[in-house]
């Protein structure tokens, strides 16, 4: 089969790789229909994280082609969506809704889903089948559920977005934009997208943003306070992962409010006193996407939401190197690879 490999920073190739087989009795093998390039794939691409001949990809939708002897619920021929962590679905952590911290979790990035086929560990706990074979136009949205939608949704839930709330969203990448969508779906009254890019501001408005704040840092915090009677937002989604974005999120939150942070933290160090006197709740980390998948698939299937709109470039798997370049050079927000 064909698969994407990152040989070293900046060097992505599509090569032949041995087709995956069932290794554990709880595995499934899927034929991948579509996969995508994640913002987090850019960290090794840019040499910020070490990389040496790594199989790439952790987002996926596809059709089950084989299941192990202990797989009970997932069946050959089903169209499935899974999260970027495989999880057993049975341990105490999974049952409490934190499948991304499952005691048996397997990061799908260690398997590599930018490929024609992928082995899915713990298939029954990991995969959710759609009601049938999806129409082609639903595939991008179902793929978004695999990571960026599930992550934006968790951030909005962690920030306690809901009716009567004012929600601010720090970050206008795919996760931030879908955090806007999630906040509105969860019933937030006002959703303030923090973005300085006209095209992303427009998409944020279409996804449910009621206001836009262009400033960053302290100026961004001051503008959020201006819009909220000096108090700050009830709920803030943080979808970047830098020192500036975390402090912008904490500063934009009112005392007693909630920050949902899902930007993968790089070089963030929180000042204790500022945190102490802020009086805000902080909750986040790698999103337990699996918790939300049945609900998200239903909303996509019913055409209530269209999160696939965050994909602004579609290429074939063979064109993966161009996809990485486009994201690295910010010519694309999120690249879908058809397989
Ligand atoms: Zn578990």
Features:
single chain; 339 residues; alpha/beta; Quinone Oxidoreductase, Chain A, domain 1; Rossmann fold; seven-stranded mixed β-sheet; six-stranded parallel β-sheet; 18 strands; binds zinc ion
Can you describe what's shown?
The protein has two domains: 2-133 and 306-338, Medium-chain alcohol dehydrogenases, catalytic domain (Quinone Oxidoreductase, Chain A, domain 1), CATH 3.90.180; 152-284, 3-Layer(aba) Sandwich (Rossmann fold), CATH 3.40.50. The protein has helices at residues 42-45, 92-95, 123-126, 139-145, 148-158, 174-185, 198-207, 217-226, 243-251, 272-278, 289-301, 320-328; strands spanning 2-8, 11-16, 28-37, 54-55, 60-67, 79-82, 85-86, 106-107, 117-120, 127-129, 166-170, 190-194, 211-213, 233-238, 253-261, 281-284, 313-316, 335-338. 29% of the residues lie in helices and 26% in strands. The model has no long low-confidence stretch (mean pLDDT 97). Strands 3, 5, 6, 9, 10, 17 and 18 form a seven-stranded mixed sheet that branches. Helix 5 (148-158) packs across helix 6. Bound molecules: zinc ion (ZN). Zinc ion (ZN) is lined by residues 87-88, 91, 93-94, 102-104.
